[in-house]
Write a structure and sequence with these properties.
Blueprint (H helix, E strand, L loop, with lengths): L2 H12 L4 H7 L7 H12 L13 H15 L21 H6 L9 H4 L2 H14 L16
Amino acid sequence: MCIRDRYYYTCCSAVNKSFVELFDDLEKYVDSPKRRFKMCLRAKRGLTDCSQHGGFYKDKVYFEGAVKILNKRKSIDLRALYAGKISVDDVQRPEIQAKICWDNMILPHFVKDNLDQYMKALDKIASTNFIKCYLLESCFYFLG
């Protein structure tokens, strides 16, 4: 399990575990007690009582967003996501498309110079992680 997967798992597990329960649960994926402690600390930051269930879900939201982009990569203009803080769900709306200033947009070199190669790389990432374009975001509901 890569580090981002572990962060996602940790955030999802924090929903119904205390700090100690989460620390013990992570042992099956993370050998180092120091690393487990840091991961629990990351998931439980901001709570005044870490013995309570709940946590900080930023890693969960980012991971789900990345999967959502991979799911929709063939049906959206990825360049539009660099226009500002814009939802992958809103990027296709005509009224949003009309407001995007394409002329002054600064794109990363991998999007600007070689979009086809970037799309192939995204296809490979999706394939490696068993993400199909027809999957919906409802696949996340089983984790809370």
